[in-house]
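A further point concerns the way the authors explain their paired sequence and structure data. Each protein is reduced to its one-letter sequence and a matching series of backbone shape codes. An entry of this sort, consisting of the sequence and the corresponding backbone structure tokens, reads as follows:
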Amino acid sequence: MRGEPGQADPAGAGCRADREELSRKLRLTALALGCATNKELCARFATVNPNTAFTAQNAYKWVGGKATPRLSSVYEDWARVLGEDLTASFVAAASFKEFAAAVQERHPLPEAALARLERDRVEGRAVPLDPATPAPEPRTQPLWQSNHLLCGGYLAMSYAWSRAETGNLILGRMEVEARPDGGLDASYTEKLFGRLVPMMGQVSGDGRAAQAVLRCSFSGRLYFLALQVPSPPANLVGGILVGSALHDPNARALAGRMLLVRDRSVGQLSGGLGYLPPDPARLDGEIARLGYADTPERQAASQALIDFLDRAPEVPMHQDVPQEAVLELAIAFDRLEVAAAPPVRIVTSR
């Protein structure tokens, strides 16, 4: 991770209509490719990208209409599975009718299959590819854990590991979401080499600390993230990231502090990605995009973030995250006001 310099995901969590549209597209793709189960469809995605995010767990959610992908790489893999002349943006943004027409041009697809998908849509059904795999039974009492305070979107910041970017911050995007079984999934994305580099894994914890092992789809390397579970409202999370630099002739083993600032903006995560000089004014601009109101306290908090990341550990042989320092920063962000959402503009055409 953390390489040399250099598109936001085409879909976020998605509304119900978006989830249903995605489900129909995936089931149509499975029919066109002759895949009878989610496992077979995952295998087709893996043939074009061994590190694809289209895993069995995600396939269950996406094909079942329960969620939409958060990573643009999913649509890139999808386009390659269907045909090299298709683009990720088309797969993500096309209507079902447009998508079906494009698939029919490239793969044999019986009209009866399209009719069945249309009938399912009218009747409001999302039929799983593999009916032999039962969905998790609904809980009478939803499982909640203190670790669920971590759920949400964050702007992640740390000092870059690349020798070419020494002294600069690197800003990434962290998403944490709960699974149906109560566990947590994490996805962390940086912009390196002119492209988005995602890392994904599961989060485990004991209520006070949380850990995740993230696998980088770009390199296949593993990165360990140790976090301190915050108290409500959990606007700031502190931790340590351990791994190795991507752009380094010796693949140095490194560890560094990381801070996560919760996104309070309306809509998809709006924080920037890439390298940034440790300039409080520049960083304050990124914090503003997260939905925090413009106040002197916010500007002071931005300076405190840089000071914390740059602070040398008390014991030189250990890179630690003092709980008191994280708490002090968290309180500073909890005191910040959230900016009012801009008025919704309704545009009509005639």
About this structure: Residues 16-33 form the longest helix (18 residues). The first strand starts at residue 152 and ends at 159. The mean pLDDT is 79. DSSP finds ten helices and nine strands in the chain.
